[in-house]
Specification:
The protein is mostly helical. It folds into two domains: 149 residues; 151 residues. It contains 19 helices and no strands. It is elongated, with a radius of gyration of 22 Å. It is an enzyme of class 2 (transferase).
C-alpha cells in the first residue's frame, strides 16, 4: 500500500523494494512476497531510468522466483508483468551485466506456460534475438535467452512463424560459438529443436543445421540431455527433409550412424536417450536410400541391442 500510494516517488519505491527484500530469508513471508511481484515490476517500469532500482528489483524477483521453483510453485505471471519486463529489457538493452541478470529472470519466468505465452504476446522474441546478436560471446546471456526461446517456440498456439524463422541463424550462431560449453550448447540444441518442430527451416537450412547438431553431439557426448535434445532436433529435421537424413549419413567428420551407436553405448542406462535415438532412426528409415545405407552399417544389431536393454519400454 505504501508503494502504491506514491508510484511517482522513486525513493518510496526503492525503500519499499529494500524492505520487501529484507523478508526474503523468512520462509513464512514467501506466500506474501508472491503477491508483490506486480508491484515490484510496476515500480521498475515507472522508474525505468533508475538503474539502481532496476537492479534491486531484479535481484528481489530472482529471489522470489527461485524460492517458488524450489517449492514447486509455478508462477503464471500475467501480461502486465510481462510488459513491464519487456520495457526494462528495451531500456537497458546495452547494459551487459544487468541484462545477464534480467535474462536469467526471463528464463525462470518462462518456465510457466502461461507466463511464456504472455511474454510471446508482448513481442519479446525480436528483443531476445537482438540481445543474442549483441552479446554472442556472453555464455550466461546465451544460455538464458536460448532457454526462453525454447519455452516460447514450443507453445502450441504459436502465431509467430516469421519471427521465429528469424531466430534460426542467431540460435545456430550461438551453438557454433559455444560448441565446447556443454551448458550453453544444450540450451541452444533445445531451441533449435523447438524451431524445427515449428517448421522454421528452409531447404538451404537442413544440411548446415544437421551438421551443427552433429558437432554438438560429438563435442559433448557425456551430456545426456544435450544428446537427447540434439537427436530430437535431428529427428524433426529428418521428418521435414531427406537432405537432413543424408547429411547425417554423409557428414564430413564421420558417419552419423557410428556416432549414434557411440552415444547409445555411452548412455546405456538412459531410456530418454535411447528413445530419442530410436525416434531419429525411425525418421531416417522412411527414405529408401537412407535405409539401405543404415542396413549396410549394421543398424539392425543396434536396434536389437536396444530392444534387449529396454524390453518393457
Amino acid at each position: 500500500e505504501f508503494m502504491q500510494a506514491s508510484w511517482d516517488i522513486e525513493e518510496v519505491q526503492a525503500k519499499g523494494i529494500q524492505r520487501l527484500a529484507s523478508f526474503v530469508k523468512d520462509k513464512s513471508a514467501f506466500p506474501y512476497l508472491l503477491t508483490c511481484i506486480e508491484v515490484i515490476t510496476l515500480a521498475m517500469k515507472t522508474h525505468i531510468d533508475s538503474l539502481d532500482l532496476q537492479v534491486e528489483g531484479c535481484i528481489l524477483l530472482l529471489e522470489i522466483l527461485s524460492q517458488a521453483l524450489e517449492q514447486g510453485v509455478m508462477m503464471a505471471l500475467d501480461e502486465s508483468v510481462a510488459s513491464c519486463l519487456l520495457h526494462t529489457v528495451r531500456k537497458h538493452s546495452e547494459n551487459e551485466e544487468f541484462l545477464s541478470m534480467l535474462c536469467t529472470l526471463l528464463m525462470m519466468v518462462s518456465a510457466s506456460e502461461v507466463a511464456a505465452e504472455n511474454l510471446r504476446k508482448v513481442g519479446i522474441i525480436p528483443d531476445l534475438l537482438l540481445i543474442l546478436r549483441r552479446f554472442l560471446r556472453n555464455d550466461k546471456i546465451c544460455f538464458s535467452c536460448c532457454a526462453v526461446l525454447w519455452s516460447l517456440a514450443v507453445s502450441e498456439n504459436n502465431a509467430d512463424q516469421a519471427v521465429l524463422a528469424s531466430a534460426l541463424p542467431v540460435t545456430s550462431a550461438v551453438l557454433q560459438e559455444h560448441l565446447q560449453n556443454g551448458v550453453v550448447a544444450e540450451s541452444a540444441c533445445s531451441a533449435l529443436w523447438a524451431l524445427a518442430l515449428q517448421g522454421c527451416l528452409t531447404d538451404s537450412d537442413y544440411e548446415p543445421t544437421a551438421a551443427l547438431l552433429l558437432d554438438a553431439l560429438r563435442m559433448n557426448p557425456e551430456r545426456a540431455v544435450l544428446v537427447k535434445n540434439g537427436c530430437l532436433a535431428l529427428a524433426s529435421l529428418v521428418r521435414l527433409s531427406e537432405t537432413a537424413a543424408l547429411a547425417i549419413l554423409l557428414d564430413s567428420k564421420g558417419s552419423g550412424i557410428e556416432l549414434i551407436k557411440d552415444e547409445y553405448h555411452l548412455h546405456l542406462n538412459e531410456p530418454g536417450v535411447a528413445e530419442a535415438l530410436c525416434l531419429l532412426m525411425n525418421e531416417m528409415v522412411q527414405y529408401d536410400e537412407v535405409m539401405l545405407d543404415m542396413r549396410s552399417q549394421k543398424t539392425e544389431e543396434l536396434l536389437c541391442e536396444i530392444k534387449l536393454q529396454f524390453p518393457f519400454s
